[in-house]
Specification:
Blueprint (H helix, E strand, L loop, with lengths): L3 E5 L25 E7 L11 E10 L2 E7 L13 E8 L5 E6 L14 E8 L9 E6 L1
Antiparallel strand pairs: 1-4, 2-3, 2-8, 3-4, 5-6, 5-7, 7-8
Amino acid sequence: MFAKLALLFFASSVFAHQSGHGPAINGVGPNGGKLASVILASQAEVGASAKAAGSAEFKVKGTSLLVTLLKTDNKTVAKIPTGKIKWILLPREGKPKVVEASSEADLVLSDKELSTMNAVELILPGFESSSEKHVVYLKL
């Protein structure tokens, strides 16, 4: 299954930039978006020394934040196993909000609070041939 996810923002302007778990990735993805590392969830606290299993391309398109999961070459679309995908929306103030979606469909989230979010973390049920949970983090 191709992993292409969309997160709908009501905010008038949201600019994503590279940040988060795992090694930094320079350059842009095939769609011109910023890249962030996809790593094993068990390595989330390791920081830049965590091994990247692939990358996630984040691109703002209109009022949506589009996410495409890529293999380590940062060009080829990666597959994720069937299961729940979790978005953790991290506000500048207050408690995080968890949103679950099926990995079989694009995720579109409408939430007036998104303009107050500081970061978004994506928890995947697996990545490529691995059934272990993986994470990607993006500071907004």
